[in-house]
Amino acid sequence: METLSYLLLGLVQGLTEFLPVSSSGHLTLGQSLLGLGDEDLTFTVLVHAATALSTVVVFRKDMGALLRDVARPGESGRRARRFTGLLLLSAVPAAVVGLGFKDAIEALATPRFVGAMLCVTAGVLFLSQRASSGHHPVGAWRALGIGLAQACAILPGISRSGSTIGAALMLGVSREEAARFSFLMALIPIGGATLLTLKDLLEQPSTADLASGPWAGYALGTLAAFVSGWAACTWMIRLVKRSNLAGFGAYCLGAGLLALIFG
Questions:
Q1: pTM of the model
Q2: Residues 6 or more apart from 10 whose CB is under 8 A from it?
Q3: What is the tens place of the pLDDT at every residue in 237-258?
């Protein structure tokens, strides 16, 4: 049963990391429903690394072009350096909030708080669909605004992809560019959160006993997180281009209300 629980949580992590429904919120609710108790830091590191890898796979051409051009002279190099700078700028608010308020935010991860924040996510998704499709490029101020939305998504129950894509749309960014920027900028906080969790894991006295951990469950959960993350990221890019996110808003509202009632 424990192995199946890790498999299910891996699927939840991969899907909800990219779908606008909050991965942290769903993991909190999933762990509560499955009775797994406190967060398993080893599993958290593995599934976050898996979802980061799935993003790299989906955007391998974009990332390869950035790495190839960033040191080049001329126009291609200038564009690559500018875009890389915007990605780094967008990560600043989340870094400040995540490093400064980490313990306080972790204490908020209760089913009822998650339910309330899922309702907030629903509101963001509904509002973003009222914004007309724009054509503005992501500049410094828009990158910072999208970064502020990402910082808010550190709260469990606030969707990172939903808030950043929603913010980009409301700031007049095109749907295609909003999805691309949202998922590429996610690599920085996901990588940072993974390293911080790994640091916490290595500082635990029980680290020496990792060999006795449920590695079959870890392996299945990690694989599930990678495959479902890759599928969700690919699907979400197409969905944002062609449709709206109101359906996810309705889901978040329903799930949030249920968590508030039964949490």
A1: 0.85
A2: 47, 50, 220, 221, 222, 223, 224, 225, 228
A3: 888 877 678 888 999 999 999 9
- The number of folded domains in the chain is 1
Spatial distance between the Cα atoms of 182 and 37, rounded to a whole number of angstroms:
32
Using one digit for the tens of pLDDT, what is the confidence trace for 200-233? Answer: 777 776 554 555 567 788 889 899 999 999 998 8
- Residue whose tokens read 């808030």: 163
Full residue range of the structural domain in which residue 112 is found: 2-204+213-262
Residue type, position 77, single letter: G
> Quick check: 157 and 114 in contact, CB under 8 A?
yes
